[in-house]
Amino acid sequence: MKNLKMSIAAMLLLTLSFANGQEKEKMNHDHATMKMDHSKMMNMNNDAKAEVILTDYLSLKEALVADNTKKAAEAGSKLVASFKAFDRTAYTGEEQMELIEIIADATEHAEHIVKSELDHQREHFKVLSKDMTDMVAITGTDKKLYEQFCPMYDGGTAWLSMNEDIKNPYYGSKMLTCGKVQKEIN
Fold first, then answer.
1. Most buried residue, 39, 136, 157, 179, by CB count within 10 Å?
2. Strands 145-150 vs 157-161: parallel, antiparallel or unpaired
């Protein structure tokens, strides 16, 4: 009888130990899942910030298409703030280094757009567009974009648009449809 009690006690102890081990494993799995979900949330947050930057850039482009210096300056100001809010930490080390350079250069050009006249805004928009194309290549986008090209502005230059129809930000109303779609992104 004593052996039976000890056997039952041993089985009970083993069962509790096994159940405890399974619970710990489940907790570790849940914690890993939570970490993964947190990481996804961080990336979604970064993706959202990258989309805000793209939206601000596209607003700037539209202001230049409309020959509107004031709206271009406002959009440039929003763009500067969006660049400063962007968190690069979710990207690889190499991507982070590239993003640091791209964002520093793009911020400088956006700042010039804020305080410049229309022709000078367009000069800075040219380099800003190159920076945005480089940034989208790293961050990606959910939006369908078109890289468009004007062969006449400053030896030829490109910009990004969400619309396949050409609306030239470099010449605005002077030559609104000058250009062509160079490639589709996404």
1. 179
2. antiparallel
